[in-house]
Amino acid sequence: MLKKIKNTAEFIQDSTNQFQPQIGIILGTGLGGLVNDVNIEHEIEYEDIPSFPISTVESHKGKLIFGELSGKKVIIMQGRFHYYEGYSLKEVAFPVQVMKFLGVKTLLISNAAGGLNSSYKKGDLMVIKDHINHFPGNPLIGENIEEIGPRFVDMYEPYANTLISKAEAAANKHEFTIQKGVYVGLPGPMLETPAEYNYLRIIGADAVGMSTVPEVIAAKHANINCFACSIITDICFGEIKPVDIQDIINTAMEAEPRLTLLFKELIYHI
Ligand code: HPA
């Protein structure tokens, strides 16, 4: 496994003239607009990268983008891998482990999530302060790769407080509110039943989604600082209405300018 990760990292370095990103960014549903602000230096399609999974969700384009954003060298995953697509949790985490060998120190993630906290509104941004892993496993099970990190990973501060503070300051500056809460990650692809939404609220979650948690676990193992922000795309309390996936994508697109601003400002201050 280590060899595979290192081979992929070497391939990327050779294909990008030894580009050294400091920040990794995983873009979620309908949030691709951030790429328009990147001074792009290199792009590689996932299908051309050895050992890389290939994205199967239509709304996700699969490529790695390398360039400068807010004065920092970034690697962007345009298109992510979900457990519900059939990838193992190790496969979902693989790109993060590759990022470690490219020199990434900070990982930024966005996603779409359902709002469980009754004070949330559709279109809100929620900075993730903590998570609950509700996937059936995690990417670290099996032989530990000592070169990446220790056997027993401390999840004491899964999302870096310094990054959360910077994001709050950025939102303040641009005069929009952000929520801060706990994200629960589930396998999907089905959405939750009303009883499950209730259960997830009772166990302490403010938002629910189908991603992010495996990548953050892999990043913490690799001693990479994490920041993640959810767009609350649907409301999962009170009278639960049928979910319209197009409506989720539209809400994500409406929130995109705010999220883009937040990320750009955050990156500037890292
Ligand atoms: N549940 C799970 N994942 C989601 C939801 C939801 O309600 N909304 C967006 N992603």
Explain what you see:
With 270 residues, the chain is an alpha/beta fold. It has one domain (2-268): Rossmann fold (3-Layer(aba) Sandwich), CATH 3.40.50.1580. 31% of the residues lie in helices and 24% in strands. It is built from six helices and nine strands. The chain has helices spanning 2-15, 89-102, 161-173, 194-202, 213-221, 245-268; strands at 23-27, 39-45, 63-69, 72-78, 106-115, 125-133, 179-185, 207-209, 225-235. Strands 5-8-7-6-9 form a five-stranded mixed barrel, surrounded by four helices. The chain is globular and about 55 Å long. The structure holds hypoxanthine. Hypoxanthine (HPA) is lined by residues 112-114, 191-192, 208-210, 233-234, 236, 248.
Number of strands: 9
Any idea what the CATH superfamily is called?
Nucleoside phosphorylase domain
What is the CATH level 1 assignment?
Alpha Beta
Shape: globular
Beta content: 15-25%
Question: Percent range for helical residues?
Answer: 25-40%
Q: CATH topology, what is it called?
A: Rossmann fold
Strand order of the largest sheet: 5-8-7-6-9
Q: What CATH architecture do you see?
A: 3-Layer(aba) Sandwich
Q: Domain count, please report it.
A: 1
Weakly predicted, low-confidence segments: none
* Rounded average pLDDT: 93
Structural class: alpha/beta
Radius of gyration equals 17 Å
Distance from first to last alpha carbon = 31 Å
Largest β-sheet summary: 5 strands, mixed, barrel
Count of helical segments? 6
Ligand types: hypoxanthine
Write the element-wise H/E pattern from the N-terminal end onward: HEEEEHEEHEHEHEH
